[in-house]
Design a protein that fits this description.
Blueprint lengths: L4 E4 L10 E4 L7 E3 L13 E7 L7 H14 E12 L1 H16 L5 H17 L5 H8 L3 H24 L12 H8 L8 H5 L6 H27 L11 H10 L3 E6 L16 E2 L2 E2 L4 E7 L2
Parallel strand pairs: 1-2, 1-4, 2-3, 4-5
Antiparallel strand pairs: 5-9, 6-9, 7-8
């Protein structure tokens, strides 16, 4: 039987050798699937599962359910590879920038602002793109090197697009096409317009917002809008470090749990698929990469 490889929540990063799943496919090579309903495979049918910057968009119970599903569908010896924003690395960078800023280092103010955004923005934002999009669309050349080191190729593309865009307004769902195109590439920050559009729900959610305004006033309308946005898939629902991520993997039954680099994997020929490394560059350098094996 051929090795079955599954890319969960692939966004725009997929490979034809894999079964690529996403809630809103961007290619005929991607199958429409909502992981909230489990995985569409039988027990012990899959050789490897991969999920990059997916887990943090799920609640903790949802994340545990997905990991349980991955364990179920994997064969004995099969590998689950996860990439998530690295809470530990973000916290360390934030504290370094804080200390430098308190000591009066001129460049530290912008680094501190960025790291605060990186730590908090997707946990608290109320509209698409949030403060992160605004910062990136106004990033200077002095910012570029640090931000590129943090968020990699997709951040570079975003900053280039932002510098070319004639409309410097922050991304809020009403920005120009150029910024929408740039935003579409930012899977590293979980920002996919197809997912954001899901909150309209064929007009039914707009009706719910209107009724909330009618019955509950402006405050009710704002609460409904925020709640629907929080369900859009863009926000982070939790964050992980190497201790907490290893723990949930072990609780799901995985063994040989280990932190990896972007360039190594227990999945055969993983580097050839161009999922974590493209042209020798790490696609999401802010990531914690971790793998677990089903015994």
């Amino acid at each position: 039987m051929d090795d079955l490889l599954v890319n969960i929540g692939c966004g725009s990063t997929w490979h034809p050798a894999w079964v690529n799943l996403d809630l809103r496919p961007v290619s005929p090579q991607v199958r429409s699937w909502d992981v909230a309903g489990g995985l569409p495979f039988g027990d012990a049918e899959v050789q490897a599962c991969y999920a990059s910057h997916v887990l943090e968009h799920l609640s903790r119970p949802q994340a545990k359910a997905l990991l349980n599903e991955c364990w179920r569908v994997l064969r004995p010896g099969g590998v689950l590879r996860l990439a998530v924003p690295d809470l530990e690395a973000i916290a360390r960078e934030y504290l370094d920038a804080l200390a430098s800023g308190v000591n009066g280092e001129p460049a530290a103010r912008r680094k501190h602002e960025w790291m605060t955004i990186e730590l908090l923005d997707q946990l608290v934002r109320k509209e698409s793109g949030g403060d992160m999009a605004q910062f990136l669309s106004h990033a200077s050349l002095d910012d570029a090197g640090f931000i590129s080191r943090r968020i990699g190729l997709e951040g570079e593309a975003y900053m280039r697009q932002g510098q070319r865009d004639a409309d410097p307004r922050p991304l809020n769902g009403h920005h120009g096409y150029g910024m929408r195109k740039a935003l579409r590439s930012l899977k590293s920050m979980g920002t996919r317009l197809a997912d954001v559009r899901r909150i309209t729900n064929g007009g039914r959610d707009r009706l719910a917002i209107w009724l909330s305004a009618l019955l509950l006033g402006e405050r009710g309308k704002q609460a409904m809008q925020e709640g629907l946005f929080r369900q859009s898939g863009e926000s982070h629902r939790w964050m992980y470090d190497r201790l907490s991520l290893a723990q949930v993997l072990r609780e799901a039954g995985f063994t040989t749990v280990r932190v990896c680099t972007a360039f190594e994997s227990g999945i055969d020929a993983f580097e050839s698929f161009g999922l974590d490394v493209i042209g020798g560059k790490i696609r999401k350098p802010d990531s914690l990469f971790m793998e677990g094996k089903r015994a």
